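Homework help thread (please don't just give me the answer)

Our assignment gives two proteins as sequence + structure token strings and asks us to describe the second one. The first is just a warm-up. Here they are:
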Amino acid sequence: MLLWFIGSALAMVWFVFRDARFPFVWVALGAVLSDVIGVVPGAVAPTHSVVSVVGYLTVAMLLTIGRRSHRKKALALAFGLFMHLVADFVFTDTSLFWWPLGGTNVDATRIPTLDRPLAANLALEALGVVLLVWFLRRLAVARQVR
């Protein structure tokens, strides 16, 4: 399930920035990174936690002081990671969302995508296609106007 995360993340970030020059590829990468990391073991990755994502954002901001192009990409990746938390409904699982602050026992927690019924995942994936098409059209129009 990739298109739901990519489409929803790109649409949410577009609503905020509406900048055709923003590195949206990094947003898309961040949106799927959590599940890509966790799919092999079949368990959640640390990036399913808001604490980990805030930690990444803090380190990225410190490491990119004075390097604007790198900072923009690091921010875009962080936005994608945050949007993944929203699109995966991770906030409904307090111990996972606040890990390790909300508890440390998430080792056996499956990726939320794998816990949802197939029909729900297919519906979300279809919605992701719609959002992705909408985003690409908006981006194309913005690039023509520019």
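The one we have to describe:
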Amino acid sequence: MIREPAVSGQFYPKDKSELTKMVNGFLASAKNQNIESRIIGLIAPHAGYVFSGQTAAWAYKQIEGKKFDTIFLIGSSHNYPVKGAALWTGGKFSTPLGDINIDKELAEKLLSSKIIQSNNETHMPEHSLEVQLPFLQRTISGDFKIVAILINDIKNYKEIAEIISKTISVSKKKVLLVASTDMTHYPDKKNAETVDKSILDTILKFNPSELIKADERWMSKDIQELHCTLCGLPAVLTVMETSKLLGANKSIIVNYSNSAESKYGDGNRVVGYGAVAFIKVTGNESGAIEVKTEKEFSLTKESQKELLKIARESIEKYLSIGKIPEFSTNNPELINNGAVFVTLEKNHNLRGCIGTTEATMPIYEAVSQLALAAAFEDHRFSPVSKTELKELKIEISVLSPLKKVSSASEIIEGKHGVVVRKGSRSGLFLPQVWEHEELSKKDAFLSELCWQKAGMERDAWKKGDCDIYIFTVLAFKE
């Protein structure tokens, strides 16, 4: 019995290429926190990708490129009541990205307990585990198997956690636990964010009993339309407890968002989404966590809007009066020098892209000049006309300083932009290029960069005489 996708085409795209592009895009916009400690468990949301996909990507970005033998996916059933725990014992799980095998060995061992029972019917229509799979398929290195479990009652979480942890410990396999849950349903935005912050603060304490108390406390308050704090609370408790039994001793909040932030969202009826990692910190009695993060450029939303306005008005005024317009600003963020790329799209196709890797002028001036260059000086396209203005979409990418690396192994797929240089030849790809399915892997990305952008041999990046630089970008669009 193959478990066919139940919600492809609804919660996420049915087309393989479209799904790959969407997931890659989410991952490219997430940041790897470079958590040096071992990640044992994750919490990831399970709503439609247009709502929670970006936060889910933040969770899975933390395990990108890592190898696991088996993933324990634990969620709650939205369609059937579940007594104890419902274990999938059928065949492969299928997604538009391919099939995933079940770890039959571990599944059979779990069935030796009375509380975990085979129940395939409950899994067939369930979305909470299914929506996690494409992210796993795009981030985990090599093949992996899954164990799929649905739990609806919190009263048995400790017993189930003990069974799972013992089964994993005896197997000696490298396992990742994933709790699938969304957060608050369905208060207004202000109340949702208040409750969600409190619940995440409690999760930081890494104490299941405290989480139960926090849930009870908030649900006893008279908050209009608050249906739950965590729809997958039993799954979260089980993964948290199992992670502790397997040696995890800290939790990290990786990301938070809510449905009101989506263009499809309603601020009066909100669902919250959180990404959390449960980790094992070693060699530090205080339990302090060292999280290494690259210092990346940031701009306020107001600054981003101002730059996009400058880019569009630069093109519009030049087409109208034939002169390069002048701008000024009182925004202190925009008077700093910055390296910028401006990209124009028309009907989702590239219409022009010009930029610089050196910060030689204030950001607002660079955006104006490069918007004009992208519109009228990109030799690959004819100059933009007045009739095209309404169809153009503008994206601005602000670059971090270039960092020379010793080898391509230091490049993180989906995160880094790359510059290659050899003699007088050079080429650059922005991080957004990883979104193209055929360039989503490092070999293809670097080979095409050398060939298409730098005019070098495709394998030039593998040779010692080619310099490689990496950078990150803050990208935003209309």
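TA reply:
I won't write it for you, but here's a hint about the kind of observation we're looking for: The chain has three domains: 16-280, 301-396, 403-477.
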